[in-house]
Amino acid sequence: MTYVEGFLVPVKPGRKQDYVALARHIAAIFLDHGATRVVESWNDNVDHGRVNDMYTAVMAEDGEDIVFSWVEWPDKATRDIGWEATIADPRMPQSDDAPYANARVIHGGFRVIVDTAAKQGERL
Predict the structure, then answer these.
(1) Are 6 and 104 in contact (CB under 8 A)?
(2) The architecture CATH gives domain 3-45+53-122
(3) How many Å apart are CA 32 and CA 30, to the nearest integer?
(4) Edge-to-edge strands of the sheet including 3-11?
(5) For residues 42 and 91, is the Cβ–Cβ distance under 8 A?
(6) Would you call 76 helix, strand, or coil by DSSP?
(7) Rounded-to-integer distance, Cα 74 and Cα 19, Å
(8) Do residues 22 and 98 lie in contact, with contact meaning Cβ atoms separated by under 8 Å?
(9) Parallel, antiparallel or unpaired: strands 37-42 and 106-111
């Protein structure tokens, strides 16, 4: 069953193109290590809430944008092996000048419970 790795990322002001280039580079590495899909999405209609929202979740600073992204894997076992291989891959950037605030990225793994695009036999 599909396993999803989700990310909420605060991107530094004026660094959109840098982020897109980095995301494309890293997406290829994920795919090489077993991911089936990588999606990066730029904030477009992200409201500020009264109590909490995506900006406060990542403690966004003035001018920062929010990226919502996910990596799909065939299953958790493939994710576990692929994640380790991706992190260890020498193509992974090792820069102190990342276009995003790494310390404030929200990340987690999720087991899919509803998937309208799944094949008939895979739906829950």
Answers:
(1) no
(2) 2-Layer Sandwich (3.30)
(3) 5
(4) 37-42, 65-73, 3-11, 106-111
(5) no
(6) helix
(7) 26
(8) yes
(9) unpaired
